[in-house]
Amino acid sequence: MQKNTLQTAAKIAHRLGARDPYSEDHAQRVSWYAWRLARRLRLPKNEVEDIRMAGLLHDIGKIRFSSKVFRNVKEHPSKSILKQIKKHPDTGKTILEDQGFPPKVIDYVYSHHEREDGTGYPRGITGENIPLGAKIIGIADTFDALITDRPYQKRRSLKEAFLVLRKLSLSSFDPVLVETLITEITINGL
């Protein structure tokens, strides 16, 4: 079941990639970093695989974005586009529920933009209320965004990315998880 579900996840992520090539590659990298962080934490194998799958699917709600959102990737989004972007966890949750994905995977996808201090979305939950898998994916997502060239933002060096993550660990991210990812990348590279 796990392998079939992972294959289904890859196919769904590929469909998003047909609309936005950056998203498919980003999903693969987020899944990779999240999987490595979960393994370094020595989480149970089934939990590691759920996190890996959720990393692959974390932005799947973007598949229902209007073409306008994908056309405007060269600039920072307007308020109306930002409002649409902030709905992607809800949309992703609905898509994954309809496809019969495991509840944990759905919860991780739904919660990956939540932040320790409650400033995240869609629910604005804090600390211990955020599932561990979602915290891991949120950090992996941010890390990849920092070290990858985007139309509106140049990539940062690893040193700069680590500094940003450490700064975010003062409010948005769990500092233990941030340091664990930094250790993993420092020891084993990208």
TrEMBL record:
HD domain location: 23-146
MF (Gene Ontology): cyclic-guanylate-specific phosphodiesterase activity
Every HD-GYP domain range: 1-190
Entry-linked SUPFAM superfamilies: HD-domain/PDEase-like (SSF109604)
Pfam families (alphabetical): HD_5 (PF13487)
UniProt keywords, alphabetically: Hydrolase
Keyword Hydrolase on entry: yes
CDD domains referenced in this protein's UniProt entry, alphabetically: HDc
PANTHER family registered for this protein in UniProt: CYCLIC DI-GMP PHOSPHODIESTERASE PA4108, CYCLIC DI-GMP PHOSPHODIESTERASE PA4108-RELATED
Matching NCBIfam families: HDIG
Name this protein carries in UniProt: Cyclic di-GMP phosphodiesterase response regulator RpfG
Origin species: anaerobic digester metagenome
